[in-house]
User: What shape does this take?
Amino acid sequence: MSVGQGNPGVHAPPAGGQNAAGITYTTVDESYFEARRLKRHARVWSLWALGVGAVISGHYSGWNLGLANGFGAMFFATIIIAIMYLGLTFSLAEMSPALPHTGGAYSFARTSMGPWAGYITGIAENIEFVLTPAVIVFFISSYLGTIFETAPAFQPVYWFLFYALFVGLNIVGVELSFRVTVTVTLLALGVLAAFYLSVLFSGQLDFSRWALNIGPGGAELPEGNGPFLPNGLGSILASLPFAVWLFLAIEQLPLAAEESHDPQRDMPKGIIAGILTLIASAFLVLFLNTSIAPGAVGLGKSGEPLLDGFRTLFGTDIAKILAAIAVIGLIASFHTIIFAFGRQIYSLSRAGYFPSFLSVTHGERKTPHVALIAGAVLGLLVMLIIWFSAGAEAGATVIGGTLLNMAVAGAMLAYFMQGMSYIVLKRKFPNLHRPYRSPFGVAGAVVCMVIAAVTLYFQLTDSVFQTAVIGVAVYYAVMMAYFLVIGRHKLILSPEEEFALTKGESEYKSY
Assistant: This one.
């Protein structure tokens, strides 16, 4: 490979070597992209399922850890975070059809603010998408450990088995991947709907008795009827990262752009339908799961809150059967976010930000198998480090909570950068063809940025979350060092890079 002027069949920027940002492009020919092709398959229905499926496990486990601060704190935190996600998703609904590349968030930042901003955004999203499946598979193992009564030390076996199975399904092909996504997402929503209806008609719903059974300082109130905000207004901030879990990962939808038949028409519809579905389900699970035994106190430290609810409604034996079905909800998100980290690593690698071998796709199936395996290995490695450091008996609040907050920290930085990308694109590219325009405009992006910044700031300053955020900072430092020394000299004219360098004037094409 050489650097410099391109020729027919060769992808290279104009002559000039290194640009002002210290970036050097490497010339490649068509064979490079021939080895990195994807297949188009998704339509609105598949995109809706991809977005909802990615998030739905957060309605089964993880969100409930925020109840340790009291129901009122979690309630207000959920409202705040829902507003943030409305600002984010409507901004994405405008940007994604205008820049229909697999790069997603990295692509938006790269076009609007340059390669360094693109890489910073890409790393933030990489942290989020690699660690989110790790959180989910931890809660899957928690559910399965309870169902099959296996010892905590057995949990890593569940992790390896589920990663192997669902990475394999994603490698088999995009058609199967999306069929599985639609199926498990519908089943997951069906299980939640059955739970909601069961609570409503059980005669056991008692909001004041159970949802308000936390007193000041976290003390349990046996008769309930406690304060709405037992630990004051500041506790709302402590619940923000857990409220994020009710919506986190719907922003992965733009990563499917190059596998969508008509991203300019279908992407906005899929994103908007997805966030509205999730907001409705989020408030239903918050109120109904918490309004029956064991209430806020019990759920605040549970690894399987939906199973706890089923136990209350139907007893232990039947609850185990229902919980086995409920694992489908966790599987839905696990499967779909594996899809996301595969495409995210693929896009950054295809453009040269990550080592380019990671973007090679399967010769027959056209799936990014190398990226999928690499993301799984990295997620498992982080899990094992935390597991061995904390001990197998540490439980959901330590292992699950640490992983969750690492994923949320990466997400908050990614959201801040995506909000900024939206604002800069509006200013720098006013004539860019936008098939959809956000009704919230710049104001929605600003609100998203402010809430994301507040959430991340609280994670940085609160001792409970600091370890997780420090872990994210260490990974960032390593990856930035790689880009400074190696990566910035090996960039390649992928669709995202070509679109950015031509300032959106070149017609979009997928290699």
Q: What stands out?
A: The beta strands are 10-11, 28-29.
